[in-house]
Amino acid sequence: MKVFDNTTKKIFLASWVSLNQAQASEVHVDRSHHLSPKRKGDILQPLRLWLESIQIRDYKLAHRLCKLIPAQCPFERDINLFGKTLFHIPPMCKLNPLYDELVGLRFRALCYLADECGEDVTQYC
Known about the structure:
The protein is α+β, with helices and mostly antiparallel strands and 125 residues long. It contains 4 helices and 2 strands. It has helices at residues 21-26, 45-53, 59-68, 99-116, and strands at 77-81, 84-89. A two-stranded antiparallel ribbon has the order 1-2. A hairpin with a 2-residue loop joins strand 1 and strand 2 (84-89). It is flat, with a radius of gyration of 22 Å. The protein starts with 20 loop residues before the first helix and ends in a 9-residue tail after the last helix. The model is unreliable at 23-29 (pLDDT under 50). Residues 43-125 form the Mo-dependent nitrogenase C-terminal domain. This is Mo-dependent nitrogenase C-terminal domain-containing protein. Pfam families: Mo-nitro_C (PF06967). InterPro entries: Mo-dep_Nase_C (IPR009717).
């Protein structure tokens, strides 16, 4: 039996598409497609949409968001005793149903500070 008998015979190629400047101004980006899928009875959907729609245009608001929303899960820990790891507490932040929206909001605040204000954001990383 030969290896190439069991391998895929089709090859898929992917490439980036470049838009002209004139075409780019005509393109409308719909951000609602990447939101979590609508589930029947999802009572948090209005809150998700509200968090996604927040525009960061204030220097103080961006700083507050970067300070309030942690870069890493504060609950993840290794419990050590006499230099040996007894057990590991996994990150529980992903159990938060609004985790992705909060991380996205923090990222938008960091981008505002770095791109618009020209500030060094390494203190928040």
